[in-house]
Each structure stands twice: as structure tokens, then as C-alpha cells.
Amino acid sequence: MSASKLRSRLSEIEQHMALIEAQMAVLRVERETVARELKAIVYPVLTVPAEILSEIFLQHVSHSGQRLGPLLLTWICRRWREVAVCTPRLWTSFYLESVPLAALWYSRAGTLPLDLNFLTSEPLELSELLPVIIAYSAQWEKLTLDPILLPANLFFSFPCLAKLELLDSTSDGVVTMPTLTDSPRLRELYIDISGLNGLPATFPWAQLTELTIISNLHTCLELLAQTANVGISTSR
User: Fold this and answer.
1) From which residue to which does any coiled coil extend (predicted)?
2) How many Å apart are CA 39 and CA 176, to the nearest integer?
3) Which residues of 111-123 are buried (b: 16+ CB within 10 A; e: fewer)?
4) Domain residue spans in the chain?
């Protein structure tokens, strides 16, 4: 290509670039205008008072069935995250599938009574579970667990524990029931286990007021002998 043609082509390119730059300048101005107008829009949901939004969150989580319900709310927007994190009641119920997540969850629950579910399809080592037990046992109000996941003797205090649910979710064999000796408020016991390896004498049977049994006849008879003065439901 000759020098004259190159100069001509260069001139065309520069003119084209100038045109594009002019168009970009117009678009930048328009972008700033649109962004400013968008920022000025007030979304109705963001005007809801925090205490009302908190109650909406509580109702949603209680009916949604989502195990990570409160956590999902924190991903929507900054305001929702702020309200959710500052609503301790949202964080009082947890399915233990991740020990680090449990620590985050219960730190947001503050000092409120807790509902902990130890049923999980993922194997958890006792060394992982014990820190959670030790750190939060004084706040447990309801505890649902597969006894095979924990040692039979839990020498910790459970001053708030009112309801215990034992479900055999990981084994078809005979399991050992935890003793939970220091549980002065325990009143309800729900058992869905095929076979128990005896009943611990130190379990606070006398203070129970409600008992539900889904088990074999032998286990039912053993439990009935221990809890003659409570309302009982049996099955299987």
C-alpha cells in the first residue's frame, strides 16, 4: 500500500475513533443520569420498619422448611442482611451439618434457647461435635439426635433442655440411649428407635410428663415401666 493510501486510511480510522469517542461521551452522560435516577428510587420493601421486616422473616423461616432459611435472607440485599443478622430468633434452630456454620449460626442467636438437630447424612466425628456440645449445651431447649452420633454419657449440664427426640436414622441395629443426667427441665421424650441397648437408670424418667414411643414391643414395655405417670403414645 502506498504512502498516500496509508495516510488516507489513517485519517479514516482517526475520524471513526473520534466518532466513537463522541458517542461514548454521550453514553457516559446518559449512564450517570440513569444511575442517579435509579439510586433515587425508593423500593417499598426497603421502607418497611426493621421490627416488621424481622417478623416477616420469622414467619417465612418457620413455614418455608428451608434449613438455611435465615442464611438465604442475608444474600438478598444489604438491608435484609442487617435485619436478619440482628434478629436472634431467626438463628435459634439449626440442622448440624457443618460445625463451623453452627458456630456462626448460634453466635447470632445470642443467649436465646436453641433447637439443635443432630440428624445428618454426612458423617461427623465426635471430635467435631464435642465443641458444639460444650459451647451451647446450656442453651439447648430442644434436641433431636441419632444416639449413635454421641457418647452414651454426656457429662454436661442441660439446664434449658425441655424436649428430647431420639431417632435411629443411621443404623438398623441396637443403639445406646444417652443419659443426659443434668437436665432439670426435661419434660418431653420422643423415641423412634427399633431397639435400645437397655435404659440408663440415671436418666431423669420421673420428671417426664409426655412420652411418645415408636419402637418394638420390648422397648415400649421397658419405657412404660420407667414412666408410669406420664401421658404416653406408643406405636409399632
Assistant:
1) 3-30
2) 61
3) eeebbbbbebeee
4) 9-41, 45-87, 92-235
pLDDT 10s digits, 12-39? 999 999 999 999 999 999 999 999 988 8
Which residue is listed with cell 417499598?
A: 44
Provide the grid cell at 222: 421397658
pLDDT, one tens digit per residue, over 139-186 is 989 988 877 766 656 666 789 999 999 887 655 556 777 777 788 999
